[in-house]
Write a structure and sequence with these properties.
The chain has 86 residues and is mainly alpha-helical. The protein is built from 3 helices and no strands. It is elongated, with a radius of gyration of 20 Å. InterPro entries: LysR-type_TF_proteobact-type, LysR_subst-bd.
């Protein structure tokens, strides 16, 4: 996987140099014009969405336990701090 500006990746795909994974709205005109072809489509509804808690193995300190418990409560109630909402 290459990390380049999106416009360079799209131009490379248009030139037949590879494939690009992007939102359909960015390539709709290219698809209609035949410059690009859609290899497959994913629906957002088909992809599970969520957050993952990742930590180092070993015992958890009490502040971390409280934070994880709070985070789980927030997820269950569907509420989140305004700064965390997207």
């Amino acid at each position: 996987m290459t990390h380049l500006p999106a416009y360079l990746l799209l131009q490379a795909a248009r030139d037949g140099q590879g494939i690009v994974n992007t939102k359909r709205m960015f390539v709709e005109e290219d698809l209609r014009a035949g410059r690009l072809v859609c290899l497959f489509e994913d629906s957002v509804e088909d992809v599970p969405v969520g957050y993952f808690l990742v930590r180092q193995p070993g015992p958890m300190r009490e502040p971390l336990k409280r934070f994880i418990a709070w985070l789980k409560r927030q997820a269950q109630t569907g509420s989140a701090p305004a700064a965390a909402r997207v």
